[in-house]
């Protein structure tokens, strides 16, 4: 049975349809249907993709078919299998996939040759929030407090580990409270079962906490605290300082001085056709004014929001686009070259580990993590993680 619902006034049933514009122009030569994976139906990432699809339909007369996925693997698998050309994915499906961490360190996966197109850097923050009734002002104030640990979500817990490290804290300095999922963790803070959890400021759960009797606080991560940021990024290099003005209890007059990372990340694989990537880049840029206000967070797709020296390399088609827009510098190219070299080291090491005998999956993963750390260290690169 096909799921049908109304999102931003559009009927959605696998392929997105929008009213035809009075004058369409597909001079870019885009295919009649594009497909990409995205976050699950109802999520911010899905709603953003719907708005982009509507803009594409109006300007070019093409359909954007969105395949929703509940987790990083389910969003990345159709990309790997060639069922979609692109993915509006997260840090898990981009950076973690590149590195071969967590689910991507299992024997059926391995480090992936991912490539970026555009990063959504909106006005939200992605950080640890605390209940407003316990006097937390910085991550240091979380010492001795009850912090949510989400079972089965290692990347989410790693984010909290990194933010604790900003103030020289570890999980040994807080009281770890187990929850079965992100939503349960945030509900637990509102209900008084925990004091802090990780979230996006624009999530429904953040708004719910803000409206609860406990209220919400965003512990400040001072962007000038170089040592604090060095400790944080040593654990989670995809984070960067952010001034959040969109989300629960946030505004331009009342911002959160905190942390963020791109969400979503529009990505593909290395082998994707360069010309198609470039055409999609131009389509995203040319229709930006149409979709930028059509879904929360879409402002983050703007060219002025891009971070071209991040933790995953850009596709050759994207680089050509940025060069034509006079945005690509020698510094960006050097970072890109380094990341492609890193991916090659990871791919070569993975092949070596796969060629060895292992008693079970656990032994395989231990060998992989040890071997990747040794190979990256030998090349003068930070392995970031050596186990999980």
Question: What does this entry look like structurally?
Answer:
The strands form 5 sheets. The chain has a 5-stranded mixed beta sheet with strand order 5-4-6-15-7, with helices on both faces. The chain is globular, with a radius of gyration of 21 Å. It has 388 residues and is an alpha+beta fold. The chain has helices at 44-60, 72-80, 91-99, 154-166, 182-190, 204-211, 226-235, 274-286, 288-291, 316-324, 330-354, 361-378, and strands at 5-7, 10-13, 15-16, 33-39, 63-69, 86-89, 114-119, 126-131, 146-150, 175-179, 196-200, 216-217, 240-244, 256-260, 265-269. The longest helix is centred in the C-terminal third of the chain and has 25 residues, at 330-354.
Give the secondary structure arrangement, pairings included.
Elements: E1 5-7, E2 10-13, E3 15-16, E4 33-39, H1 44-60, E5 63-69, H2 72-80, E6 86-89, H3 91-99, E7 114-119, E8 126-131, E9 146-150, H4 154-166, E10 175-179, H5 182-190, E11 196-200, H6 204-211, E12 216-217, H7 226-235, E13 240-244, E14 256-260, E15 265-269, H8 274-286, H9 288-291, H10 316-324, H11 330-354, H12 361-378
Parallel strand pairs: 4-5, 4-6, 9-10
Antiparallel strand pairs: 1-2, 2-3, 6-15, 7-15, 8-11, 8-12, 13-14
Helix pairs in contact: 2-3, 4-7, 5-6, 8-10, 11-12
